[in-house]
Structure formats: structure tokens, C-alpha cells
Design brief:
2% strand; two-stranded antiparallel sheet; 179 residues; mainly alpha; globular
Length: 179
């Protein structure tokens, strides 16, 4: 079974090293961490010099612990892995909102568990809904939930390219994460 550390390692492998692509609205990055995020986490050196270990800890704090995806991992590691990956690219609030929307759409008209408020925050009701869904639908339900999360991720990527044509340079690569 995958661990949160393994999920972060996969994110680091996907993100690669130092990049400063003028078409990227996020600007200069290293290990997938933008300069703005690195600075907010106390990094003061040149972005090229940010270590992989420093990036790993940023991922752990900002994209696992802060959004409570570690709590999701206790219920479903595959769902947690998907949320971490989506959260890295789109922000944890967006990733959590995708989960909440998906669980609402899969709750059988609120007969299996109550509808969730789409607030982008993992709390006790989101965790309870995920547990109830998986208890009712099992491994096949988990697989279908992941398909729906990936569909929402893909739609968001497409919307980003429609809103900013410079993002078209990244769409093909982004879709590798949603496939």
C-alpha cells in the first residue's frame, strides 16, 4: 500500500527540477514549488538552490497536513493521493471541492448520506461521507470516484486553457496527471 511519503515522492518525480518558463503564470519553480510559495515557507535563496528535501516538507505541510488529506488517507489512500496531486496543481481547496461535489453526486439523492456543503475544507462531515460512500460502494465505488475526480481535474485544465491561451502549451502534459 502506498504511503503519504510515497505520494509526495511521486509528486516530486512528476514536477521535476528547476523551471522558469515565461508562459507559466506561476513563474519560476523548483521541484514544482513556486517562488511565492517557497518564500511564504521561509526559503530565502535563489530558487535554483532550493533542495528537494525543502520542497518535500513544503508538500507535506501545505498539500497534505494543512488540507487534512492525511485524514483522507486513513480512509482511502488512492483518494488521498489524487487529492494531493490535484491540490498541488490547482490548490487544496479546489481538490477538496472536487471531492465534495463528487460525493454529493454519488450519494443517491442524499439517501446514502447527507449532501455536503461545498466549502473546500476536509472536516468531519466530508470524512463521514467518504466513509459512508466506500462502505456502501466498496472498491468499485472507489474506482468510480477516482474516475469522477479525474474528470473534474481534466475539465478544469481545459477551462484554464480556454481562459488563457498561453496555458495551451501545458494542457497535454497536465492531462497525464488526470489519465
Amino acid at each position: 500500500m502506498k504511503t503519504i511519503d510515497a505520494v509526495i515522492e511521486q509528486v516530486l518525480a512528476n514536477e521535476g527540477g528547476y523551471v522558469n518558463n515565461p508562459n507559466d503564470a506561476g513563474g519560476e519553480t523548483n521541484h514544482g514549488i513556486t517562488a511565492a510559495i517557497a518564500r511564504s515557507q521561509g526559503f530565502t535563496g535563489p530558487m535554483r538552490a532550493m533542495t528537494r528535501d525543502f520542497a518535500f516538507e513544503i508538500y507535506r505541510r501545505r498539500y497534505v497536513i494543512a488540507p487534512r488529506f492525511d485524514q483522507i488517507a486513513t480512509v482511502s489512500m488512492p483518494v488521498a493521493a489524487e487529492l494531493v496531486d490535484t491540490g498541488v496543481n490547482m490548490g487544496p481547496v479546489v481538490a477538496t471541492a472536487f471531492l465534495q461535489r463528487s460525493l454529493n453526486g454519488l450519494n443517491n439523492g442524499a439517501r446514502d448520506y447527507p449532501d455536503l456543503t461545498i466549502d473546500g475544507a476536509v472536516g468531519t462531515t466530508t470524512l463521514a461521507a467518504l466513509k459512508a460512500f466506500l462502505a456502501r460502494r466498496g472498491a468499485e465505488g472507489e474506482r468510480r470516484l477516482l474516475v469522477l475526480l479525474n474528470a473534474l481535474q481534466g475539465e478544469r485544465y481545459l477551462s484554464l486553457t480556454e481562459d488563457r491561451t498561453a496555458n495551451e502549451a501545458f494542457l497535454y502534459g497536465w492531462l497525464a496527471r488526470a489519465a
